[in-house]
Amino acid sequence: MTIGARNRLEGKVIDIKRGSVMCQVRVELPGGAHMESVMTLDSLDDMKLKIGDKVRVAVKAVNVLLLKD
Q1: What confidence score (pLDDT) does residue 4 get?
Q2: Residues 6+ positions from 53 with CB-CB distance below 8 Å
Q3: Rounded average pLDDT over 17-38
Q4: Which of 7, 19, 25, 39 has its CA 20 to 30 A from that of 57?
Q5: Are 9 and 56 in contact, with CB atoms under 8 Å apart?
Q6: Parallel, antiparallel, or unpaired: how do β-strands 54-60 and 63-67 relate?
Q7: Residue-wise burial string across 42-61, b where 16 or more C-beta atoms lie within 10 A, e elsewhere
Q8: Three-state secondary structure along the chain?
Q9: CB 11: neighbour CB atoms within 10 A?
Q10: Count of CA atoms in the C-beta half-sphere (13 A) of 59
Q11: In angstroms, rounded to a whole number, what is the distance separating the alpha carbons of residues 68 and 26?
Q12: What would the pLDDT profile of 30-57 be if each residue is shown by its tens digit?
């Protein structure tokens, strides 16, 4: 997938909080900093994201997107 966000950071999923429709995914970056992304549960399931997965965090304006190879 091609995206326009150029600010990308590697990290590891450390927490997933599920709601009824959306979820909050917390990622730990090298050095101990954390970032979070909010997405639909359908997207979470499509990506098969789970705690411990390595992801890239793509930041563009107010959006934080998670990418998984």
Answers
A1: 60
A2: 12, 13, 68
A3: 95
A4: 19
A5: yes
A6: antiparallel
A7: ebbeeeebeeebebebbeee
A8: CCCCCCEEEEEEEEEEEECCCEEEEEEECCCCCEEEEEEEHHHHHHHCCCCCCEEEEEEECCEEEEECC
A9: 19
A10: 8
A11: 14
A12: 999 999 999 999 999 999 999 999 999 8
Residue type, 3: I
Provide the pLDDT confidence category of residue 59 given band limits of 50, 70 and 90: confident
Give the list of residues 6+ apart from residue 49 with CB closer than 8 angstroms, or none: 13, 16, 25, 55, 66, 68
Tokens 């091609």 map to which residue?
2
> Which one, of 2, 13, 3, 7, lies nearest residue 36 by Cα?
13
